[in-house]
């Protein structure tokens, strides 16, 4: 039975009463067998594991955690109903990549489904296949789709077949430095090396001249090999100062595909996202339509099911280019949830059970944008040491909270030990408001309330960048009395925009934040 409650602006889908049979579907919907999920294991750690555990608990599903020897004291272990050690004797990261141990735990403890989270094994087709072979459902796309989307070269070919524009690049992974030379001779500089079998900024190197080619090729190969177990690279023409726009998609086992609008992830440092915003600010409505339409078109071309993200670059002329599909839940899925009121993890689980999107009340015409949401990643990085990850024990922790603020974290508490072995993410701070300026003001206020002692954090960077989002190109937040000041939006007197100093770089037009803005 569907259950709703009234919220401002309409009805909100709260959940589905779990029964052994699915409700009747529309006559034109192909019915597959519905199998309720009773126990879910998350093959991951940290905040994403806790995020999935919470969704499972809300749905009445029992939860299972796995943890490495270095993670015995981590919070995600405490939040699950059951927890099991994996990767005994292995390096910290390798423990979470050890498929045999993870499958063994799942089978021995009657796990119905595995959620991969993000990172680690989330985009490994062999892991999805191993789950399927063991009779355990993989909460994500089919192994074949994971394989196709994980191979950046094949994903590019699929995009071309679907009529989606792509950046000029190689049709297959390059096998030598000589091939990179030949590509540069044809298309000129700058170019960018990318890992063929992974993402997240690893294995990416921008090259501006022949003199830089060999060193960056070697580094990109080494990074890709270390991060994904495969150093294969492909080469693309580098689009300078683009916007990085991604579209959230959701599909089911019956061929239904919809989008949940876009996120702007243009604020990055070393190809790592720092601030994400939904919907994208100052985005032309026609461009939004093209981006979302092409995302759905691509998903249908490959037969996509479950949650995923189609990523694009948008150049200064408003042309968009497909770059990749992330066949998993993104770190920044939170902002999409805030503006659409759709719980993406709930949806993932229901789709894996065999429900259709219409069963869940999810139809394209019903997906609406409600306000704006911004996410900032507060990380344990030391700005004084070129943002190197910092480690140690948190001696003091006070978070910023209040109306419109959501915190997703796992290690953000007094006494927590920040390990050098894993990602430096401490807490995701999400602000939701009626418009961009309101959300930016809430975020700035929340970040200002944070107090962290014992480890260095990248808080002030996120605070400065966030407020810049509400201002037009060439301006930044300032005081009302400043010359040329103008309100950023109706009803938002707290955020006022003034001309940027000459050295500043507008973050929405660059995938690399300028050094001036970082400081």
TrEMBL record:
Q: Which domain of life is it from?
A: Eukaryota
Q: Where is this region: Disordered?
A: 469-490
List locations, semicolon-separated: Mitochondrion matrix
* SUPFAM superfamilies documented for this protein: Glutathione synthetase ATP-binding domain-like, PreATP-grasp domain, Rudiment single hybrid motif
Main localization (coarse): mitochondrion
Q: Where is the Biotin carboxylation domain?
A: 36-486
InterPro entries with a match to the protein in the record: ATP-grasp (IPR011761), ATP_grasp_subdomain_1 (IPR013815), BC-like_N (IPR005481), Biotin_carboxylation_dom (IPR011764), Biotin_COase_C (IPR005482), CPAse_ATP-bd (IPR005479), PCB-like (IPR055268), PreATP-grasp_dom_sf (IPR016185)
Question: Which GO cellular component term is one of those annotated?
Answer: mitochondrial matrix
Q: Sorted alphabetically, which keywords does the UniProt record give?
A: ATP-binding, Biotin, Ligase, Nucleotide-binding
Sequence ranges assigned to domain ATP-grasp in this UniProt record: 156-353
Say yes or no: keyword Glycosyltransferase present.
no
Classification via Pfam families? Biotin_carb_C, Biotin_carb_N, CPSase_L_D2
UniProt-recorded Gene Ontology molecular function terms = ATP binding; biotin binding; metal ion binding; pyruvate carboxylase activity
| Listed Low complexity bias regions | 477-490
According to its UniProt entry, the protein's GO biological process terms are: gluconeogenesis
Q: What is this protein called?
A: Pyruvate carboxylase
